[in-house]
Design a protein that fits this description.
alpha/beta; 8-stranded parallel sheet; 8 strands; binds pyridoxal-5'-phosphate
Length: about 230
């Protein structure tokens, strides 16, 4: 079998440099964009080199997988910032509030209400982003772009859940730029500062279009093995 040649730290550094160049060209400061390293399916052994190199911002898409992996890593690196980037079920809201620092996938009233209650219960307040289904794909999570303003207002005024930003996943096989532009427009008119957009295939475009975080998995860690 071939030796695994992927060094996540080398990949990370190359991506960071590419991003910094793109940000500079766009007249943006490199501090204004963070890389969320997406570690779903990857074991702690694959994540540790990045932690040892000083990176602290990571993302998972399943609560249960994150619960198995991150508490032990946090004991060693208490300043880890962990993002939830996958769909959240109401019965996992309490676990999510205790474990994550940013929950990027608020997309319906029931989950907003449950998250607000969990914040009270655990006296913890992660950042919350609303996921917007910019392509209005029926199989994809997120609020439709037409309902986003009302939902953001309802989170705050109806459920007591302050929203900090927006997140989107553009449809596969479509140019991402119009989706990023739409997300940014919704953020601006709602006074939201955080924009989570851009993945391994389109992080440069996202950086040019105002992303404050890009979610990068395979370009750092290599292709993911299928889940068992
Ligand atoms: C897996 C995942 C990513 C990372 O995808 P890559 O293409 O491997 O960079 C980003 N965002 C979400 C929501 C994901 O589930």
């Amino acid at each position: 079998m071939a030796i695994q040649e992927t060094d996540p730290c080398l990949n990370f550094r190359a991506i960071r440099e590419e991003l910094n160049t793109a940000l500079k060209e766009a007249g943006r400061d490199h501090h204004d964009l963070a890389i969320t390293a997406i570690t779903k399916t990857h074991a702690p052994g694959q994540i540790l080199p990045l932690l040892e190199a000083g990176h602290r911002i990571f993302g998972e898409n399943r609560v249960q997988e994150a619960q198995k992996k991150w508490p032990a890593l946090r004991e060693k690196y208490p300043d880890i910032e962990l993002h939830l980037v996958g769909p959240l079920q109401s019965n996992k809201a309490g676990d999510a509030v205790q474990l994550f620092d940013v929950i990027e996938t608020v997309d319906r009233s029931k989950i907003a209400r449950t998250l607000a209650a969990a914040c009270e219960k655990y006296a913890r307040r992660p950042e919350f982003y609303v996921q917007v289904n910019t392509g209005e794909e029926p199989q994809k999570a997120g609020v439709g772009p037409g309902g986003a303003d009302a939902f953001i207002a309802q989170c705050k005024n109806g459920h007591g859940l302050t929203i900090d930003g927006l997140m989107c996943i553009p449809p596969a096989g479509e140019a991402p730029a119009p989706h990023f532009a739409l997300l940014r427009k919704i953020a601006v008119r709602n006074g939201l500062k955080k924009l989570s957009m851009g993945m391994s295939g389109d992080y440069i475009i996202a950086a040019q279009m105002g992303a404050t975080s890009v979610r990068i998995g395979s370009a750092i860690f290599g292709a993911r093995m299928p889940r068992q």
